[in-house]
Amino acid sequence: MTTPAHPSAPALPAYDRTRLTPGIVHIGLGNFHRAHQAVYLDDLFALGEGHDWAIIGAGVRPADAAMRDALKAQDCLSTVIELDPTGRRARRIGAMIDFLPVERGNGALIAAMARPEIRIVSLTVTEGGYFMDSAGRLDTGAPDIQADAASPDAPETAFGAILAALKRRRAAGVPPFTVMSCDNLPGNGHVTQQVVVGLARLSDPDFATWVEANVAFPNGMVDRITPATGARERAMAAAFGLDDPVPVTCEPFRQWVLEDHFPAGRPALEKVGVVFTEQVHAYEAMKIRILNGGHAIIAYPGGLMDVDLVHEAMEEPLISAFLDKVEREEIIPIVPPVPDTDLHDYYAVIRERFANPEVADTVRRLCLDGSNRQPKFIVPSIRDNRAAGRLPLGLILESALWCRYCAGTSDAGTAIAPNDPNWGELTVRAQLAKDDPAVWLAMSEVYGDLGSDPEVVVAFAQALRALWAKGARAVLTDYLAG
Length: 482
Fold this sequence. Notes:
Largest sheet: 5 strands, parallel
Distance between the termini: 56 Å
Protein name: Mannitol dehydrogenase family protein
Shape: globular
Strand order of the largest sheet: 5-2-1-6-7
GO molecular function: oxidoreductase activity, acting on the CH-OH group of donors, NAD or NADP as acceptor
Number of strands: 11
Pfam family, one: Mannitol_dh_C
Keywords: NAD, Oxidoreductase
Oligomer: single chain
Strand content: 5-15%
Number of helices: 22
Helix content: 40-55%
Radius of gyration: 23 Å
């Protein structure tokens, strides 16, 4: 993985990795987990604490096998490069000590989670990986869910594997592990519980009742901007003397807020900056509305104006001013108070993070998966403004920008490659909405009953027609001029 004599090569972890023992199985070894949870644990281990909480990595998708091969070849070490504008810093994270085989039926994963020393099973399976329907319930018609319900002893999903392991533990008299979602979902613990219990009900209602009564699903808020890995990121690793095909780059900022609900025990993460609180929901609402909503606000005008990188979008005066106006007038005023936090100060930090040129995050990544993200990051803010008697024209314009983006071309006519799991359906609907904007708002799985709000319908139609007639640049100019 490295040439030892290279002058820039980051040192290996100072703690003795051979003395680590596992306490966590983590499913979903993408970049975010390796730049977030794994880093916090690495920091804790470096203090000489928590050495019985090492991670065993796992994946349930065929694509996870390539990550396993890459990490196993370098002793499960991950390269994490912090992209500070004042200088890049690389470190090698040693918190993971094994990566299970990726296989049909998930036998190795189930066996590992059934081991008594595993006290936490954590997840990063993306916002869209929870099989939730538009009403926020388990989508029992999803093929993968139906397959797991029919074959609970040979499951294909992470949730089915969790159930199979819990059933083995119960039969053996071993207390259940805690299930900890690290995905960017409102109420991620509640969501995970609904999916796991709902799946169990399809095959064993009595066991589902036991899971609901005995297994902990703490809520948590996670935050760190972590771009995808490509040639640029691999070249950064090489500059540090590392031959690593899967390095992780990330911003310096990170945050983790958790409910302290771990009946089987937990590592002392408060010693390395994790906040334990009963008010996770307040931090979560702040982050989802201000940061994730902010990402959407800059993403779609950026995409339509052929801006490639997020910091470049922040350098575009119209996009930057659009973000400021919507955040300060329509989002921050409806975000509930957060302990020991000034929301305007928090937003100022968000602006700095978005503008960090070292991160080189892409506008396309922020535009990804709008059909899952808009109902979580934008629509709730529209709804709260309406409940307060306000018509949030900026947020409605953001929604029209998303619709215009999904039509498949930028304002200059550049083709936009598919960028959503439902891209085909969205593109057809967006093109129909050019003549009948109400077609877009009729997506009840995204907008709920907002599509029948007359003022929202009129404002959306005006915004969308203006985008088609004049383009994003002119429409933002008009909006900012009042």
